[in-house]
Structures
1.
Amino acid sequence: MTAKIIEGKNISERVRKEWKQRATSLKQQGVLPGLAVIIVGDNPASKVYVRNKAKACQEVGLHSEIHEMPADTPESTLLQKIQALNEREDIHGILVQLPLPDHIDKDKVLETISVDKDVDGFHLYNVGALVVGNTVFPPCTPFGVQCLLEQMNIPIEGQNAVIVGRSNIVGKPMALMLLQKNATVSICNSKTRDLAQYTSMADILIVATGKPKMITGDMVKSGAAVIDVGINRMDDGRLVGDVDYESVSKVAGHITPVPGGVGPMTITMLVANTVIAAERTL
Ligand code: NDP
């Protein structure tokens, strides 16, 4: 079997058009959706992510602004900046790019963002809403994965979904979202004994570990949908996922490439959440 490639880039362009229409309709009602992105420090990868997020918003006609703060910014100054953005009526979404410098308490920062503007979905209130199946802002990466599965008409209900990785930003919310869609969900972590026993029973296999090419073809069920969230920069500059594309694409039914799979969808879902935040102010 040769897997069908899930073209995240093309799908994300299509999905962005739908959100552009919703943004246009909002503008006709006098609301221009606005996103503020805060970046603290000079992490080059973070700077690229932030620029891409702002650009995607502009492409669909949203207002976006980047607030750059130096690495030695005191925590209190960052919190004041967030509070000022919470107050602004023209800003509907606020995102603080992670990671933050060590002297800043990330949890305190995330809890300061208004729950109504928490377009990353990391505030405890929104995490809780996800747990009870009532979320407004699903975290962007798992939201993007769910959207990819839906766009490819890959069934979720009743399927065995296995997630490798249990981070708060990918693995855990992903598990909750698929559970909400009536999949049977297993979550694996670095202590899981006999990982292949789990991965090989997955109809939907989602991998988010940050370990290059760790899932190989012999660990995957024939015909499975394999979603590779990983983005790893190799010494030669190439980007690779957490899935060994070459061997897995011979076994799987569907597979996402890296780059061009989940990455573009993450940004698209940020646009979606910003539009949703603006719609809720009507
Ligand atoms: P984290 O480092 O926060 O979490 C990694 C998870 O993988 C942990 O739960 C860890 O287990 C688990 N893990 C590590 N090794 C193994 C193993 N051998 N077997 C099973 N589980 C293992 O990473 P993130 O979730 O933040 O990111 C994961 C990857 O996804 C990275 O490559 C990142 O760059 C990428 N990413 C991509 C995004 C996109 O838009 N495409 C967005 C966000 C992340 P334990 O908890 O036991 O340590």
2.
Amino acid sequence: MLISPEELQRRVGEIGQAISRDYAGQNPLLIGVLKGVVFFMADLLRAITIPIEVDFIAVSNYSPEASQRGVVRLVKDLELPIIGRHVLFVEDVIDTGLTLNYILRNLQARQPASLEVCVLFDKSEHRLIDIPLKYKGFDLPNRFAVGYGLDYRERYRNLPFVGLLKPAVFQNAATS
Ligand code: IMP
Ligand code: MG
């Protein structure tokens, strides 16, 4: 276990307070990418004490080659227009930054009043594109983490803590 449920709740609460303070009177729109962010988003929204709205997009990678270039396909678009809105993009984990960069360019083209990023887990060792993070929860080591939304082949998202997989789990998954 890397991060306990209590540590997660405490830090998410702090971020919620900071957002409530910084965006007071601005009715911000929080946007998340399905599916990993739903756990963080659900807790964050309940830690925010000002009026806010929420929306989701979903993306899928065309191919490993395309995703290495940071090209993703939007498979579910926003339901709300964002022109003139104060948008806070909420993401579970940023690694290379390629996915996030692609999505931010897409959102920026829709002319929000402002566009900032809130990320729970930052794996900065692999970063290829520098993206300013207005809110950040935790730094993670350059290891594969699971839990609190993070999955390994769609599993382990629902763990209430963040942990590292034992090497045996990878090996079993590779041979089964
Ligand atoms: P990147 O920033 O474009 O490299 O992509 C980040 C994406 O890779 C995230 O949205 C996750 O889906 C996935 N990812 C990166 N690191 C981890 C991890 O440690 N555990 C689970 N998923 C991860
Ligand atoms: Mg993801």
3.
Amino acid sequence: MKITPMLRQYLEIKEQHQDAILFYRMGDFYEMFFADAVAASKILGITLTSRSSKEAENKIPMCGIPFHAAANYLGKLVKAGHRVAICEQVEDPKQTKGIVRREVVRIVSPGVTTDEQILDAKTNCFVCALVFPRKSKGSSPVGLSFLDASTGNFLVSEVPVRGDDHTALLDMISRINPAEILLSEEHYRQQQPLVADLKGLQEQLCFTLRPEEQFQQASARITLLEHFQTVNLDGFGCAALSSGIRAAGGLLAYIEETQKAALGHVRKLTPINQEGHLVIDESSRRNLELTETLIGGRREGSLLSVLDHTITPMGARLLRQRLLFPLQEQQRIEQRLDGVEELVNDPGGREQLRRLLEEVHDLERLCSRLVLGQGNARDMWAMKVSLAQLPAIRQALEQWRCPLLRAIHSQLDELTDLHQLIGEAIREDAPITLREGRLIREGFHQELDRLIHLLRNDRQLILNLEAKERERTKIAKLKVGYNKVFGYFFEVSRAQSAQIPEDFIRKQTLVNAERFITPELKELEHSIATAQDKRLELEYALFSEIRERIAAQSSRILDTAQQIARIDVLACLAELACQYRYCKPRLNSRAEIRISEGRHPVIERTMESGRFVPNDVRLDQDSCQLMIITGPNMAGKSTVLRQTALIVLLTHIGSFVPATEADICTVDRIFTRVGAMDDLRRGQSTFMVEMNETANILNNATSHSLVILDEIGRGTSTYDGLAIAWAVAEELVTKDQTGIKTMFATHYHELTELAASQERVLNASIAVREWNETIIFLHKLIPEATNRSYGIQVAALAGVPEHVTRRAYEILAQVEQGDFHHHPSIAREKRGANPGPEQPCQLSLFPTGKHPVIGLLEATDPDELTPRQAQEILYEAQRLLRAGDS
Ligand code: ADP
Ligand code: MG
């Protein structure tokens, strides 16, 4: 095919951006060609056409979108995981001959966007960069860094790796939940298992491969030092993070490249201090449904959705971060709690404060757009409206005395200078576009005022001149006219043309009249004719200058945004506490958890007020260090477990808690494990996941941890499950002499026997009242064991047909008499489970290496058997033999 100059230009630019869809600006449209057009037309649902140029033998597929509607289309492409390179005309087509120069001015990718249409106001949008150590340098950590270009948040961290186990890394990444991940091509290839796991967590995650050089120590350091204009990175507290710095430098280089702008709003690199935080690993976060529900991944129904009473987007994002990075240090937690308390105690002041916050827009993102040269006049006006609230907010803060609120008060910059600047310069009714004028207020700039005056009064100015010339020439009938050939002219009748002064230049003679021009008239005409263009140009220039002046103050704006976020979160937690009757928890260092009338913050919200049954929970290092909770299905075991974990967690973010009283010790980690929940997203077998997680607890829990185990062992056969549950429970009571605070819900009633030998074990159950054939759930935790499962009653409540449950009662009766199976204790154990088809053989209950038949014999006490049972055991032994053979 023959290549036109335009096509050549397109191909050259496309060559540089092969991994992106290229938006090629042509007049009022962005056009896409070739494969880009095919892909985009599908996602956007727009028509695919083809360019039927005379020279082109093969038709080129293309599609286009109007530039003024680009944001919407762009959003769709990016949400579908694509990168988009936006290529603009960088010359005025009117003033160029031949082809207009074009350049890619911006690249938008899932992680790098400042578009409101793509971003979720309540969540940060991070890109993450990863740098892996060389295999030879076995023990050095993985470096990782996160940057949210829409707010300027820049984080760095390192995570040690042990062999091929990347749990800790996955954990950190999923906590921050980036939209895009950068790594070098080589690492991408080497880390396929990790990549697969990350994709499992978030399907749309976009991986961007970058040149290895950008992650090299020297170049990464230089990128950072140049950006921050410092001589070293000590001031940020990250000098020691060598692979972290490689990740951060590579990341910054990438963002600079995609934004094609200086990133003035990225002001510091913050190390993520893992030690200072309460660690909640990835699966615990999911199990506890902190930010999204386990099923469906919805925000609604998560803890965050119940907590979030914030008003500003900055506040919403901070609350989320606090939830994912709870504190560990008692003093800091108490400071936050005192702040919340003060606001709880002053409903009037809080109300007033929250009303002021309602007028504050997303300062962080507004600021970023201005810094990146993308903000328009409406952004500027939104900034002004927000800044207008600051003095009143600051004044409202004055009345409160606790250290945290005092600190926010003293750090809040009112930014009156910026408020004033925008107020004086920018028109409230300015349009979205920057090239149509009407951006700058009158009175701000002399020359602009002159132009506006000229445009507004063009007719009058001409008429004034007409009057003046009439006066001078004394020709009463002299009048101004206009035509396309000469523009403005003076016209007098032929009779009067003799009176015309010297400086009039004759242009045209008609039958009855003559037409003249004067230099003054032509000058005025020229001024009027060019005024519009000049005005647009000047307004744009003035606007850009103001935008730069504001951008230069971005660090002050971002500091203020941070203070607003802090106060918003405190006020939100106070609001929450008042609305839902939460209490202020006390903190202790006695390793004790004591909750009076605790409730589950999310489940209680789904019920009518007063319907949720509150429960007392106590865990300590003496008599109830491991609580074993039994009770039928649906009694409320999982609920009481989770609510305890959530109350402890809420305390650590500095929130009041759903209880009437709570005394909580600081904990270093919360582990929760839920058995029998198929982890479909990761495609691993249930049991494997369950055991992985259990191993993780046993390896990492300390005497300061809180462990929640919900029916672990369910993923395998009954005996294995019981054996594992028992051994795990035993280990948790005895680990490191002191043991680990644990709540263990189980359907293995045998576990309650552990309390006989271990004094720190407490048996508890959830009370149920029997009533006729059925049962009533009381949802009340009581300190005694139960040995009944009420499985058949629950089945009946669930709607299993009556003849089936009646039959189940018959079978149960047989089992209880030992008729059903070969071994009395097995029969008792089975009572809870559905006595369905044959159980799989329980091979691994016995020590490995031994034949199962030997195990069976060892587990049998012949003196206890009836002849009939002995015969049963022989049959079973034969069955096991055959099973082993096949
Ligand atoms: P289990 O784990 O024992 O099977 P769940 O904790 O899943 O039971 O609770 C089952 C249901 O019972 C919950 O969905 C909730 O509707 C209700 N429930 C649980 N605890 C309470 C409570 N304390 N007060 C009121 N309803 C409760
Ligand atoms: Mg449960």
